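Justification of computing resources. Each target in the renewal requires a structure prediction run like the one illustrated here; the chain below, 72 residues long, is used simply to show the kind of job we budget for.
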Amino acid sequence: MRSHLGAGALGLIVFFVVAALMLVVIPPPFRPVDYFLAGAVGTLFALITVFVVHLATAKPADTFYKKRRKQK
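Resulting structure tokens:
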């Protein structure tokens, strides 16, 4: 449970940092598409971060599928 909260918090931090950096790099005046791109790139990096943290903290067998018990 704690690793999920940590991954989510790290994802939020990465989102805000990347979106802020995008808005610093893009020259003003800002159009609506500039804000859209900053949010989209921030979301991409946040999701990649959460996925990598999940891969690093999960059990290797439970990463992509979960084994089930055989039913009778």
